[in-house]
Amino acid sequence: MNAALFAVEAVVYFGVLAVLFRARARIGIGAFFCALGVMHFLETYLAAILYVELPFGIIASPGSVVLFTGKLMLMLMVYIRDDAVVVRQPIYGLLLGNVLLLALALVIRNHVALPLSPGREADFGLVDQMGWLMVWGTAVLFVDCILMILAYEQVRRLFGGHLLPRLLLCGAAIMTFDQVMFFGGLRLLTGAPYSVLVGGWVAKMAAVALYAPLVSFYLRHLEPRKNAKPMRRLADVFDLLTYRERYEDLLARSGRDALTGALDRGRLESQGRAVVDAAALAGRPVSVLLVDIDNFKSFNDRYGHAAGDAVLKRIAANVMAQVRASDLVFRFGGEEFVVICDGMAGAAAVALGERIRREVAGAAVGEAPRVTVSIGVASCAEDASDYNGLFAVADERLYAAKAAGRNAVIGERLPETQDAPHLALVR
């Protein structure tokens, strides 16, 4: 009965962890390592308190035989499929976590504890015993993994690409070393008899004989090859949150507005100013367009901020669709955009403003009324010769467009043949 239970426990243990390892492309390797870490506590607890009799009078613990042997074989599987850099992560984490457990237990025991009920008081005896056993077991595990990887690579000379005999041979050799080392700590801390040493070794050899075929079968038939197409990531809530955070962080570092995709105000103050100053210094024409959405506050109040955000995104797209590839579009404020056109003189800038105005006015936003924009245009060197001067002139003309009835562009006068019924043009 005990032997059959050992076999069932081994198959369930390996099966669940193999599924987590197989799913690492979707949920990450962390889930596999966390499950392995939880089992580390259970295996040490069982190794300290639970021993059963197996056939032929063998005495062994399921913690040491099933869980620890399984963990070591799983670590070898991780190395075979990935690399030693991945293997070291849970070992360091377990070792440092166990040391932390002991350190905190030493501090916590100094609390003046209140019993929850008569006769129930805090007993740190098991924590002390298990803590030291976990530290010792993890230190042995560290050596085990190094020796197992080296042994696995060395037996290649004997068996070549035959996976199963390599797993059996190096597993048996390392578990022999592990049983001797772990028993030393177990005897020191718990006074375990030598029958546990012999019985545990025999049981571990049987466990290796079970786990090696499982690992071999998994690697040959269930694990995708390294050149296989990677699995699509699981789009759960954590993935979506991570994507959104990284996307917004990328936009912040790239100087773009998260809602509209336009360059942000910080980039306007640095890059926009630099473009204007460089053009002015070189004697090259440059124009600034201030684009403001008409009655945007009233629109938000009536239709809601979600509809307002949709308008902002749509108008930003309208503006970007009309400008040249070399022009820069910035979101200046809540409903204002700034366009800087290097190499563009006043007449062409006003024509661009009119194209933007018509594009915005002609677009629909669901059942909401038509949204329009007013635009002020200033050009160097006709209107000003520096960034601050251009911006001041464009801002003044924007307010003039608002005062003229909105849905207007005010800047340099276009030719008389230009069809612009909504255009107010002044110099």
How are the elements arranged and paired?
Elements: H1 2-22, H2 24-27, H3 30-49, E1 52-54, E2 58-60, H4 62-81, H5 84-108, H6 125-154, H7 156-159, H8 163-190, H9 194-222, H10 237-254, H11 265-282, E3 286-293, H12 296-303, H13 305-322, E4 328-331, E5 336-342, H14 346-362, E6 373-380, H15 387-403, E7 409-410
Parallel strand pairs: 6-7
Antiparallel strand pairs: 1-2, 3-5, 3-6, 4-5
Helix pairs in contact: 1-3, 1-4, 1-9, 3-4, 3-6, 4-5, 4-6, 4-9, 5-6, 6-8, 8-9, 12-13, 13-14
Provide a quick synopsis of the model.
65% of the residues lie in helices and 8% in strands.
Tell me what you see in this structure.
With about 425 residues, the chain is an alpha+beta fold. It has helices spanning about 1-20, 25, 30-50, 60-80, 85-110, 125-155, 155-160, 165-190, 195-220, 235-255, 265-280, 295-305, 305-320, 345-360, 385-405, and strands at about 50-55, 60, 285-295, 330, 335-340, 375-380, 410. It folds into 2 domains: about 1-110 and about 125-220, Arp2/3 complex 21 kDa subunit ARPC3 (Orthogonal Bundle); about 245-410, Reverse transcriptase/Diguanylate cyclase domain (Alpha-Beta Plaits, 2-Layer Sandwich), CATH 3.30.70. The chain contains 15 helices and 7 strands. Helix 3 (about 30-50) packs across helix 6 and helix 4 (about 60-80) runs parallel beside helix 9 (about 195-220).
Highlighted features:
Alpha-Beta Plaits, two-stranded antiparallel ribbon, elongated, Arp2/3 complex 21 kDa subunit ARPC3, disordered C terminus, 427 residues, alpha+beta
